Amino acid sequence: MKNSELNNFYAGLSSVAQLKGAVLAFAVGKNLHEVHKSINELQSKLVVDEGFKKFEEAKLALLSDLAIKDEQGNPKQKQVPGGMTFEFEDDSEVEAVLAALEEEHAAGIDAQKTNKDDHDKLMGIEWEGKKKMVKYSDLPSDITGAQVSAILKMVTEEN
Fold it and tell me: Are residues 108 and 54 part of one domain?
């Protein structure tokens, strides 16, 4: 299992945490603990560069200033695929000003790209934690297919 799969595995474990059965409960509890610890470690390694933070703050202030204002003087926003954006009179002016801002903050932007690339590589490697397995025969008889699917990575078949 890759590090990138830990959040989904954690959610699956959480979805079956109330099922009865000592063997299953122990395995789920141990795995919840191990996976939670690993997720926290991975999140702590995702660092946002200070120079990039300054760029984002300056970008938001700049876009807010350039946006068309409503009757109360607030920047107008419009719906776009993936979220909201400000409305502008002249998009080419905004693009030119943003390009200059990106050039001014190039070091912070590059550092953040490096941080993200490093984190993406980390998410692509195999999880080094120890997963507690449970036998198929130790699953409760009333477990649903969806619940089995959620914890399949910790269930072993018996021969």
Answer: yes
Neighbour count for residue 134 (Cβ, 10 Å) = 20
Measured between alpha carbons, how far is 24 from 66 in angstroms, rounded to an integer? Answer: 58
Sign of CA dihedral 13, 18, 19, 25: positive
- 19, 145 in Cβ contact below 8 A? no
DSSP sequence for 34-60: HHHHHHHHHHHT-PPPHHHHHHHHHHH
Kindly state whether residues 67 and 118 are assigned to the same domain. yes
Alpha-carbon span 11 to 7, nearest angstrom: 6
Question: What letter represents residue 23's amino acid?
Answer: V
85 DSSP β-pair partners: 78
- Tens of pLDDT along 77-109? 999 998 989 999 988 999 999 999 999 999 999
**What is the DSSP code (8-state) at residue 125?**
S
Number of folded domains that form the chain: 2
The predicted-structure confidence for 14-38, as pLDDT tens digits, reads as follows 999 999 999 999 999 999 999 999 9
pLDDT of residue 159: 56
